[in-house]
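thought: user wants a sequence for this fold. calling inverse folding tool.
action: design(structure=
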């Protein structure tokens, strides 16, 4: 990279490693007044006499304004849509009230300089107690549930006692390193370090050990040893992962990665796939070539993306030519969504930019109401022509924000009850009353087995899964390998067996009925599923009869070959080829709300997807002659369009057809098991819906839900393998969430609460500026998911308030430096020479925290 400065030593141009030119201009006071990206998109800034930004005009010409009090504190922020947020302060400069754009006020009270009370817009209260050093001692929520913390003499957290009086204990050495973690079952995980503080060994609650070895020259992690399985890592000079190789005995499996000069991943390879990415000078992803190498005849899917002047994606052309485009307003809020020439959706939004009406292309209108705390209060689906109501859902919450009741006009009343720490104790619906029992560490217990062991005259100690491994539930038994992967389950003599690859991905399932094979790309996304029924030939019946009978049984079990396509972390399409018995192929496209896992529409074509064959390249390569760059696919006609109607969590409840009639609907048990209904028309057309909780895809062959990085079992409400990000996803490595009513986990890594109480999320997409989970952190990684590029920290309103960069940007900005974003929600305000930059030692505690298994792009301080 090259830097140019003016006579005042102000940075005026950056020439990046790929030739992009980033330009800046300043006023006489040295304030940044203009910034141009390599595409010529301009952002302008205006300031007051104190050098504080008062107006920001983006490349679209939209302007945001800011106002401050005499102390320099922001008191008003007006976004580019004219919506106003306001802040009030006391004489000590502490914020005492925040009023959002909808007029909802959150009030804050202090004692001895410490925050002691938050009064939310719905009048519920949270209370806090801190010691003289500002450490949190007690938190009391709106239901008067109390959580307490205690600390060691060195000021490190020693214990946390939750509202159920269950204790989590921490043990530290003299150097302040965590040496043991004792969970609520009184079981310990141990951690051992080398003299320079690097983790050498981790022994989990199940007693299994993971060892770490480091490169003696660079100090980087070189090997992870788990039992007999060894994962070796290689890095380039910039500290980016270039290869992951796993070995177990004589077995070996590897994945390789490559990057451009700006650090964007451009290649990811494994045996079954090759992924290539192509970016514009501003770093926007323009094209992605997904190679399916594991097929008998390799295929290539080419994706193309378009962006506006704010560098926000506005359209994507999928590999078969279907074009998804969206219209936004302001700083990127969705206004309309199209598929080819079809107007799928049009949106109306309130002053907080929340959806209040959705006009669907099948002439249905869904309206939504929100309560003062920002929770969904009502959904109403009706016809736009005669205003008749198809369905209505009303939501009720308790003082802690937990959903207690849903009044559904089609499904009747659903009610939920929780224990003091938010675990689901019961769920009542037309499907009956489900009750649940947990051990102190949050493991779901088999109530029937507990009852048979319980003496009639005594209340014995609660059952515990000491190693967090569920071995029996409701008559089904489970077995695991030494890495915590489920390898066998059996019920009443019926067995199911699983086999995993060396990166702990499920690659094979087999039971008495059928067998299934799965393959994945280098990012862990599932590429194909190939299932075959176990069929015993009858030689006396002849080959023709056997072939037809085999095809019939295959069809009866839903077996066959399914290919999957991905848009980032979203499953975008699935396709099945035509069968020899004359059954037509089919391709289903799934359309999601941008940057979410909430589906909005489904498009079905009664033919398999038309992908390009893998070209044969010779030494005389020419881009102009490369068919991957010169092919313009013509999208096939869409045979059936349907629209999703989702609940408060984004879980599909209904599909409506082009006439506005119900095509598919579901009734869910608490943890995701489902009873489905399809109209006669939907059955004739082959309409189905495998999407479940956010990020989940139902596999009918196994009953499991593929959940991006793991598989989830809805019958037991937990994952069947350990969390790949370790304890960063939660202390219990198999847990899905405290409850499935208020929480989702779209990645299969860490759960997110819909009632907005924080979380740490991971992804390779750009961070949101606002509308994120309140009090959360988002770690943006490269495409491997192993290397952190940046953390974005959100305040209680879901607005970005700070960032930590894990790259060295030159000019003294070493890895681990921070940016304060003032006003919150305006990412651009946190960057530039006049923004508040923090050296790593000054970054607020917790901002630079990374999930387990994820390394900074550049070592902190380098």
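)
observation: tool returned 862 residues.
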């Amino acid at each position: 990279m090259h830097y140019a400065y003016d006579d005042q030593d102000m940075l005026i141009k950056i020439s990046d490693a790929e030739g992009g030119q980033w330009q800046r201009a300043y006023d006489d006071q040295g304030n940044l007044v203009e910034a141009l990206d390599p595409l010529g998109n301009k952002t302008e800034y205006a300031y007051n006499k104190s050098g504080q930004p008062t107006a920001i005009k983006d490349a679209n010409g939209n302007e945001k304004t800011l106002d401050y009090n005499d102390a320099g504190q922001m008191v008003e922020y007006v976004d580019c849509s004219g919506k106003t947020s306001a802040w009030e302060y006391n004489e000590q400069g502490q914020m005492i009230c925040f009023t959002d754009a909808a007029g909802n006020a959150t009030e804050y009270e202090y004692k001895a300089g410490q925050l002691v009370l938050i009064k939310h817009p719905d009048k519920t209260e949270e209370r806090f107690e801190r010691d003289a050093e500002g450490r949190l001692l007690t938190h009391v929520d709106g239901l008067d549930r109390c959580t307490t913390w205690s600390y060691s003499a060195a000021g490190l957290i020693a214990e946390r006692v939750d509202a159920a009086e269950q204790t989590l204990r921490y043990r530290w050495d003299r150097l302040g390193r965590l040496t043991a973690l004792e969970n609520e079952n009184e079981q310990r995980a141990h951690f051992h370090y080398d003299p320079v503080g690097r983790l050498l060994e981790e022994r989990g609650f199940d007693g299994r050990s993971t060892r770490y070895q480091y490169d003696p020259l660079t100090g980087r992690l070189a090997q992870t040893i788990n039992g007999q399985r060894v994962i070796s890592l290689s890095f380039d000079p910039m500290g980016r992962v270039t290869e992951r190789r796993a070995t177990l005995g004589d077995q070996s499996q590897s994945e390789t990665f490559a990057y451009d000069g700006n650090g964007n991943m451009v290649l990811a390879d494994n045996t079954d796939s090759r992924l290539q990415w192509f970016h514009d000078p501003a770093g926007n992803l323009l094209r992605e070539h997904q190679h399916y190498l594991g097929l008998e005849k390799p295929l290539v899917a080419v994706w193309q993306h378009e962006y506006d002047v704010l560098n926000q994606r506005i359209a994507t052309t999928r590999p078969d030519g279907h074009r998804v485009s969206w219209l936004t307003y302001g700083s990127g809020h969705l206004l309309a969504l199209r598929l080819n020439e079809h107007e799928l959706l049009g949106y109306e939004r309130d002053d907080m930019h929340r959806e209040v009406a959705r006009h669907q292309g099948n002439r249905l209108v869904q309206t939504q109401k929100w309560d003062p705390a920002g929770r969904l209060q009502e959904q109403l689906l009706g016809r736009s022509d005669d205003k008749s109501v198809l369905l209505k859902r009303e939501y009720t919450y308790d003082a802690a924000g937990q959903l207690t009741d849903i009044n559904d006009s089609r499904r009747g009343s659903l009610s939920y009850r929780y224990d003091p720490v938010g675990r689901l104790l019961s769920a009542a619906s037309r499907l009956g009353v489900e009750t649940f029992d947990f051990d102190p560490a949050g493991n779901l217990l088999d109530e029937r087995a507990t009852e048979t062991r319980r003496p009639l005259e005594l209340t014995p100690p609660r059952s515990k899964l000491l190693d967090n491994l569920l071995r029996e539930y409701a008559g089904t038994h489970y077995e695991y390998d030494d890495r915590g992967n489920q390898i066998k389950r059996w019920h009443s003599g019926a067995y199911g067996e699983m086999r995993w690859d060396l990166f702990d991905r499920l690659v094979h399932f087999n039971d008495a009925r059928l067998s299934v094979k799965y393959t994945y790309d280098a990012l862990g996304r599932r590429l194909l599923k190939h299932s075959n029924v176990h069929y015993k030939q009858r030689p006396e019946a002849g080959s023709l009869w056997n072939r037809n009978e085999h095809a019939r049984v295959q069809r009866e079990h839903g077996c066959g070959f399914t290919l999957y396509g991905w848009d980032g972390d979203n499953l975008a399409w699935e396709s099945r080829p035509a069968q020899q018995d004359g059954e037509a192929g089919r391709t289903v496209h799934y359309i999601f709300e941008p940057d979410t896992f909430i589906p909005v529409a489904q498009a079905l074509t009664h033919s398999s997807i038309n992908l390009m064959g893998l070209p044969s390249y010779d030494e005389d390569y020419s881009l102009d002659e490369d068919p991957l760059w010169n092919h313009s696919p013509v999208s096939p006609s869409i045979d059936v369009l349907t629209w999703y109607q989702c609940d408060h969590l984004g879980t599909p409840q209904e599909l409506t057809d082009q006439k506005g009639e119900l095509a598919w609907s579901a009734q869910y048990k608490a943890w995701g098991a489902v009873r489905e209904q399809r109209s006669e028309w939907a059955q004739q057309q082959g309409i189905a819906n495998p999407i479940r909780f956010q990020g989940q895809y139902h596999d009918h062959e196994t009953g499991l839900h593929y959940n991006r990085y793991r598989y989830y079992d809805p019958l037991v409400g937990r994952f069947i393998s350990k969390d790949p990000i370790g304890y960063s996803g939660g202390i219990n490595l198999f847990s899905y969430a405290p409850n499935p009513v208020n929480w989702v986990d779209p990645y299969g890594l860490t759960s997110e609460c819909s009632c907005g109480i924080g979380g740490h999320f991971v992804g390779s997409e750009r961070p949101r500026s606002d509308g994120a989970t309140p009090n959360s952190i988002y770690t943006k990684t490269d495409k491997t998911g192993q290397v952190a590029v940046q953390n974005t920290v959100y305040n209680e309103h879901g607005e970005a308030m700070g960032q930590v960069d894990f790259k060295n940007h030159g000019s003294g900005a070493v890895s681990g430096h921070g940016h304060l974003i003032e006003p919150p929600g305006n990412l651009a305000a946190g960057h530039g020479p006049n923004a508040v930059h923090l050296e790593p030692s000054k970054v607020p505690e917790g901002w630079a925290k990374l999930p387990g298994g994820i390394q900074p792009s550049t070592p902190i301080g380098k």
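thought: summarizing for user.
answer: Here is the designed sequence. The longest helix spans residues 543-556.
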